[in-house]
Amino acid sequence: MIQYIFYLILPFLFIFTSCTDGGTEISKFGYQEGQSLDTTDTKGLETATFAGGCFWCTEAYFERLAGVKSVVSGYSGGTSPNPTYAEVSAGNTDYAEAVQVHYDPKEVSFEELVEVFFATHDPTTLNRQGPDVGSQYRSVAFYRNPEEKKIIEDYIAELERSGTYKSDIVTYVEPFKKFWEAEEYHQDYYRRNPDDPYVVSVAKPKVEKFEANYHTKLKPQFIN
């Protein structure tokens, strides 16, 4: 079983930057409303959806995990059609920043994805992850069937029994309904924007910590 927690808050390091502050070039890549950016061949793959704060970080974690074939950043857990980053990041919708994970169940299990999800964010902070504040950064584990719901709830119960956290877990466990892909410039943001202030001060230290602690679970190209 994957070990639990490496997440450490770095309050003084990134106090002056947040996910909302970055990614200002909205039209840079010519994204069209309604255009599908997810071209993954999902034959033989399963899909999981998680929201754990800024999707630039969440995407980078799962992209490194062996068995994961594609990760798409977007919005889930809301009701209005065609949400945009400007609306979601400003807190003007009921959506959360989320990622859609396409994975090969022969290589990595849903249980392992759930463990990685909880190990790479703080599930005890309501509507906040580090410098990112608002319901759009809430912690949500989405399920597509009763089996997935049970896996998530059982894992939360295990974390609470073990005393892993000093505070109560506030992660929402919700049925998956709809995922809207984020604008193209958000996809693979961590790799494509290494000099972004948020990436440098917030995302990079956490991703490097993930690589160090989960090196046996990484794709070969991410093993140092």
TrEMBL record:
Keywords: Oxidoreductase. Its EC number is 1.8.4.11. The active site is at C54. GO terms for molecular function: peptide-methionine (S)-S-oxide reductase activity. SUPFAM superfamilies: Peptide methionine sulfoxide reductase. Coiled coil: none annotated. Gene3D superfamilies: Peptide methionine sulphoxide reductase MsrA. Transmembrane segments: none annotated. Residues 47-198 form the Peptide methionine sulphoxide reductase MsrA domain. It catalyses: L-methionyl-[protein] + [thioredoxin]-disulfide + H2O = L-methionyl-(S)-S-oxide-[protein] + [thioredoxin]-dithiol; [thioredoxin]-disulfide + L-methionine + H2O = L-methionine (S)-S-oxide + [thioredoxin]-dithiol. InterPro entries: Met_Sox_Rdtase_MsrA_dom, Met_Sox_Rdtase_MsrA_sf. NCBIfam families: msrA. Belongs to the MsrA Met sulfoxide reductase family. Has an important function as a repair enzyme for proteins that have been inactivated by oxidation. Catalyzes the reversible oxidation-reduction of methionine sulfoxide in proteins to methionine. This is Peptide methionine sulfoxide reductase MsrA. It comes from Pontibacter locisalis.
